[in-house]
Amino acid sequence: MSLLWVVLAVLVGILVWLYNSLVWLRNQVKNAWAQIDVQLKRRHDLIPNLVEAVKGYLQHEREVLQRVTEARTRAMTASGAAQAGAAEGRLSQAVAGLMAVMERYPDLKANQNVLVLQEELVSTENRIGFARQLYNDMVARYNTRQQVFPLNLVATGLGFQPAEFFQMDAAERAVPRVDLGAR
Amino acid sequence: MAAAQPVHAGSKTPRNLFAEQAANRRTTWVLIGGFVLFLAFLGFGFDLFVFGYDAARTVRRGQTPIPVAALLATAVGGVSAFFGYRFGDRAVLASSQARPVRLDDPNARVLVNVVTEMAIASGLPMPKVYVLDEPDPNAFATGRDPEHASIAVTTGLLMAMNRDELQGVIAHEMSHIRNYDIRTMTVVAALLGAVLLLSDWARNVRLRGRSDDDDRSPISGPVAVVVFVVWLLAIILAPIVGQLLATAVSRSREYLADASGAELTRNPIGLANALRKLAAATAPTRRVARGSAHLCITDPLERAVNEREGAFADLLATHPPIQERIARLEAMAYQA
Hints:
The complex is a heterodimer.
Chain A: H1 2-55, H2 62-77, H3 81-102, H4 112-147, H5 151-154, H6 170-173
Helix pairs in contact in A: 1-2, 1-4, 2-3
Chain B: H1 17-49, H2 55-60, H3 68-95, E1 99-100, H4 109-122, E2 128-132, E3 139-145, E4 148-154, H5 155-160, H6 163-178, H7 181-212, H8 222-265, H9 268-280, H10 311-316, H11 322-335
Helix pairs in contact in B: 1-3, 1-7, 1-8, 3-7, 4-6, 6-8, 6-9, 7-8, 8-9, 8-11, 9-11
């Protein structure tokens, strides 16, 4: 009889632990998503400064600068996750284009202010990428935990839903990575 | 202390991160327990053979038998384990004269950015960042958990590495933090110190005790002889055994940190190139004390033994051979 109680207690303990792990993962997914937003905001804040700093050097590249500024405005005003995602994707492309153009102007390398802003932007692009990577890793774990036994039996009933992966659209994926880190 | 068994260089079974963390926490506790028991044993032998501890006789006299040396040794072990756990990181940073980097320091902008990126990639809080004024490129991480962690790099590392390589190195250190290697290694270092201290001390006093008065030992017969021999061996071998344990734990963590570092950057080549540069650097990292060697990304003492494969090298080296580490990282890049 007492053995039965012990077995029961252990089972309940395992279930509680599994349930808590799902809650924990759900929060991790939310945090990871919020972190992406933080970094996107950082990019929005940085871009005007960089554009301002390089404008004088890039007289003949107005188009590139304009594309970045416009893409930023559209990304900031976009509503809804899908639209925002697409707009941020185009902004990434525009920024990568600007970075590539900047490589062609050796004068820029002498400007300390530009170098600092460039490093900040490179880092921000990386942070956005790593934040998305973490988000997807967390989503994968969260969804897997829901799909394996025994939580697959109760996850939906307890109000857990699979989270959505962040997917880069094809256009953004085609942009080659620009390495500005070489010294 | 079976849990301290090194994962041999040949085994390539990937274990998931949570299993690694759990295994590492277990290893820490088993190691602490083992070290403390070992210290208690050293102390108790002292009570028996030097102080003439005899529980039965003391009780007959109406007194409580207190094995003073055993209690003292255990206390020293417990206290140093606690201090190692709690303050070990500060001791290591202070002894290497690492200076903290302010997050808005313009000279360390790239370093701080790269650490921030890796903190985001791993989902951990931002560790404290330190720099060592030292021309030899090297890096280490220390602390008791991800919330209290520090990463230190030498100025030589900052000079030698490009952004991708620096990212690889920081990712490696961040993995040590995430896998709780930093806690294991800091506690191991503190306990090793305690064992060395006590065995040194025991050896000196023992010699004097024997010349004074040789027939004090209250127990006799074959059991006493065996216990005595084991105790003597323990005292003589303590420094070696402790060192072997520490290096075994450390070596097994390096491949894992390389692999999970590559998982963070998704760019194993960055770390591989960094390791190649580290291997080419010849000057020893002077500011890193011998006791903290196992914390670094490559052996700061540049001992030749780290570059060899084989049973003997496996016993003595704190790090696996760099060429083997590079080969594994490059193999990862081809799979990706």
